[in-house]
Specification:
It is built from seven helices and seven strands; from the N terminus they run ααααβαααββββββ. By secondary structure, the chain is an alpha+beta fold. The longest helix is centred in the first third of the chain and has 15 residues, at 2-16. The N and C termini lie far apart (72 Å). The relative contact order is 0.19.
């Protein structure tokens, strides 16, 4: 009986963890992922982190670090130097609501920037404009992140 009670107590302690759970918003989740260093730095530089730390929920199509290297030379540097343009580009990667990959409906979806992204879903392969979702459903407390292999730029 003592061994049984001890096992229950140990199980309860393990389940309880060592402290309170820490909330991980989209910015914190993207930071700890390690694949979005440039995106996170841009979000912070533009002051867009306050939006992505808000309650949301949001769906973020975040370009991986490698995606930024696919832009024509000088393109990202020019965008990064113009805070207004940077904010616009970042907001173009975000849609209101939490949309998991399995819930993607093909068609146009309005971004927080105001323009539309075109989503496609074909047998589990999801694209955003012409960018491929390479990692999906990275869940945060206030939404979800989908890694994409290209930076998508707003039409104007």
């Amino acid at each position: 009986m003592k061994k049984y009670c001890l096992n229950i107590m140990l199980t309860a302690l393990i389940a309880a963890g060592t402290g309170p759970a820490i909330a991980a918003d989209i910015v914190d989740t993207a930071t700890t992922s390690g694949s979005f260093k440039i995106f996170v730095a841009a979000v912070k530089a533009a002051g867009f982190n306050e939006t992505l730390k808000a309650s949301g929920p949001y769906t973020v199509f975040a370009p991986t670090d490698e995606a930024f290297g696919k832009l024509p030379p000088g393109t990202w540097d020019a965008i990064a130097k113009d805070k207004v343009k940077l904010s616009k580009v970042l907001a173009y990667h975000v849609i209101p609501g939490k949309v998991l990959v399995a819930e993607v409906k093909p068609g146009k979806v309005k971004t927080t920037e105001g323009d539309f992204l075109t989503l496609k879903s074909d047998n589990g392969k999801v694209t955003v404009n012409e960018a491929n979702v390479t990692e999906s459903d990275v869940v945060a407390d206030n939404g979800v992140i989908h890694a994409i292999d290209a930076v998508v730029l707003p039409p104007n």
